[in-house]
């Protein structure tokens, strides 16, 4: 498919494409491009159909089945390389409806979905070449369930008719034909043989088969392109989420710095307020000190007033004694006096000088 894409791109370059040189594709090139895109779409829808069948997603399977049917119907002719893909889509659609006898895929209303699936499986085996054990198991399970579904619904006559159509050649798989004929005559749809080759086992075998197709078609161009687109969107979403986280962290850091700055400004304001109040406190303590000094001075004055009279009387007595000493001529004679007496004499001389 990668080669087809490269060839298509080369064709576009040669013929010109809208928006490049202003030249549109010629009708022949456009038809080729449509054919390539049709191949991609068919492989892509079949790939999705197989994946939904394998995973048991009924709603998605029905939606993809409708898309595949629309793509197949749009093809004027099914290319040989796409026959296997178309057969596989038809096979899965019929097996998914295997229990519905009221659903018809053939013009003959007697043909049940599983009987129609058996015809498609025969065509698919021809496209794949030599069948392996998985192919043989699927064929055997389809044959058994074609009969079993009619018996489960109580259509024993129709089950016998189906058995005749399945084994037109009496020699083909004779043991299985005889075993089924015996079961149809017993009219017991719950015999161990039918339980051992159940419809659920058929579904399980088909899931194993489509798994091989899924692995072989993982290189489909649309799948690869869609996968790259999804990965690019996821990467963009991851980068956007990281940018959002970084912006949130930056905003948180900015808010934290703003809060810290506000706290520091508040602290400085508090300190400034404290510095302004401190002098006021010291001033008040100084006023208290001055008040205390004034009180002490007042107390001293009161003490002077109390003792002032006694001190004046002592001074008068000392002066009188000094005058007597001068009059008697005893001033200057050596006598035993205390240091306090010398101090008093010095002070007395000073006072005399002031008084005379």
UniProtKB/TrEMBL annotation:
Any one GO MF annotation of this record: double-stranded telomeric DNA binding
DNA-binding listed as a keyword: yes
Biased composition (Basic residues): 279-293
Domain of life: Eukaryota
One protein family per Pfam: TRF
A cellular-component GO term for this protein: nuclear telomere cap complex
Telomere repeat-binding factor dimerisation domain sequence ranges: 40-233
Region (Disordered): 243-293
Keyword Cytoplasm: no
Record's keyword terms, sorted: DNA-binding, Nucleus
Biased composition (Polar residues): 263-274
Biological process according to GO: negative regulation of DNA replication; negative regulation of telomeric D-loop disassembly; telomere maintenance via telomerase
Protein name per Swiss-Prot or TrEMBL: Telomeric repeat binding factor 1
